[in-house]
Amino acid sequence: MSDATLDVIAIGNAIVDVMAPCADALIEKLDLVRGGMTLVDTARAQELYDAMGPAREISGGSAANTLAGLAALGARCAFIGQVADDQLGEVFAHDIRAGGIDFATAARAGDPPTARCLIFVTPDGQRTMNTFLGASQFLPAAALDETVIASAKVLYLEGYLWDPEEPRAAMRRAIEASRGAGRKVAFTLSDAFVISRHGDDFRALIAAGQIDILFANNTELAALTGEVDFDAGIAALAPKVPVLVVTRGAAGAVAVAGAERAEVAAEPVARVIDTTGAGDLFAAGFLAGHVRGESLTTCLTMGAVAAAEIISHYGARPEAELKALVAARVG
Amino acid sequence: MSDATLDVIAIGNAIVDVMAPCADALIEKLDLVRGGMTLVDTARAQELYDAMGPAREISGGSAANTLAGLAALGARCAFIGQVADDQLGEVFAHDIRAGGIDFATAARAGDPPTARCLIFVTPDGQRTMNTFLGASQFLPAAALDETVIASAKVLYLEGYLWDPEEPRAAMRRAIEASRGAGRKVAFTLSDAFVISRHGDDFRALIAAGQIDILFANNTELAALTGEVDFDAGIAALAPKVPVLVVTRGAAGAVAVAGAERAEVAAEPVARVIDTTGAGDLFAAGFLAGHVRGESLTTCLTMGAVAAAEIISHYGARPEAELKALVAARVG
């Protein structure tokens, strides 16, 4: 195994978030799944956009958000994801590169356009996401550079991207390339709906020992294990992965690595503005600690600090000096 | 003169702002005019975008921002401005309509793309704007519906748009249509560079009695009158327009209407985040008061409240409930 030249390489959806505050009544009127992520087609995306108030566009995508946090914390990162050859694709590419992240996936010509996620943010800061996947679901395995993947300490994959066929095949190849080079594979389960569709795949990957670090929230933990009780879920899943990290919103997070178990409370936040990206940035903080060899507790704390920063403002990309915030908390 | 069905109709640049925080050193390195507005071509826009950090996109445009504030304050508004038939054009059109503003100008096919303004925001909240005008400068006079213009109490024009030839001709026709219907014309001088290029036009419009309400900041006042002293500038210009409104940043604002003079301090702001749109929203608050017949002092106070809201966050479109903020201050 040669020296790693990257800390983390991620494969994920290349999405621009279109975000607007919204009254609780609008969530009901539009029949949205409050707090969830729903895939939408062109017609539904148009209908929802027409109903949305004045918005702002901020680059998003789960794994891309995680990389933005990692890069802000000083990690060397690369991203693989599919944009279209259009203005929103330029926005996504600009923002990820401007964050110091390598991004070499060529834009895809023609329809469909770059993915966008219409996010309605209710007064309590909860985000309700409606994703039009567009070009993102056509990431081909040919877009992978296996040498680059093999050069990263960690390959990070988002469960959301397991749903479309081409990226799923690409991710399977990436796992082979990473593990073949003796690297680690980190995976986030992303959302309960993904588990409902691909839970068998995920359980098979875990059973085959192909996932080294698994991220989930409490809902996803329950969906994957079938255990409603949080501790029972942890007990069922932890023995099957080298590192298990489970977040549970305001109740903090737990990590288990073999015989070691660590737990942290959520970091205090003056006011929750928008929870978009909380899980993504938790993963960023945790992985930033992991690649520099920190203890489980420190990794969790770094995750909690990054998550607290992201929910204190609109958008899922860090705005504050994450590095300084983390340094102030864990040194 | 028939009853007005609109309070304010505005003609302005249809721009999407691309905004990012930036260190003071980058302003120097890129040779930017700190605090100013500079027009840029395609190559320079690309160069600046490449140098910019991760950004967010929020609809902008001076007069369009003013309308967004007016609509938030309950005024009935319409906007005329040129976008291209592209994704940023869709973003602009969505945001202005979602704000409750009529917008009927057809998108322009082909190149150039929709206008964007690359805004670098330094740690003191000062914004440095670099505008790629794109489609915006090709607004044709044919895009005007003179019946609609004649139905608005106030026609509001931004000086920025006086620079390109087609919109200038369109604005001259709009002035005729508005005044022919016995309505009022409001004009903002926008920026000292506009005055350096078109000051003679503006002085001629004023001398011909074609401007009823004139908005300027202290720099523009000096550029238009040649008077360096603030009070001397006011004394020189006020007799020539029915209503003169001059802002001077943190020092507040002055309005003169015939023999009446009013002055307000700036409203307190906990922390200035981004001054983009301060003048635009001041005009919004003032005009909202004007169309409902408020006193000069109340109009100024409404302007100050709206300006204070906009500089407390990123972007030049109001985020808070402006109506409630104004009601709390002036009833």
Brief overview, please?
The structure is a homodimer of 331-residue chains. The first copy, chain A, has 331 residues and is of the alpha/beta class. Chain A is 39% helix and 21% strand.
CATH homology superfamily name of chain A: Ribokinase
CATH class of chain A: Alpha Beta
**How many separate helices of chain A?**
12
Across the major sheet of chain A, the strand order is 6-5-1-9-10-11-12-13-14
Query: What is the total tally of β strands of chain A?
Result: 14
Whole-angstrom Rg of chain A: 18 Å
Q: Specify the biggest β-sheet of chain A.
A: 9 strands, mixed
Topology:
2 copies of one chain form a homodimer.
Chain A: E1 6-11, E2 15-21, H1 24-29, E3 37-39, H2 42-51, E4 56-59, H3 62-72, E5 77-80, H4 87-98, E6 102-103, E7 115-121, E8 127-132, H5 146-150, E9 152-158, H6 165-180, E10 184-188, H7 192-207, E11 213-217, H8 218-225, H9 230-237, E12 243-247, E13 253-257, E14 260-264, H10 278-291, H11 296-310, H12 322-330
Parallel strand pairs in A: 1-5, 1-9, 2-7, 3-8, 5-6, 9-10, 10-11, 11-12
Antiparallel strand pairs in A: 2-4, 7-8, 12-13, 13-14
Helix pairs in contact in A: 3-10, 7-8, 8-9, 10-11, 11-12
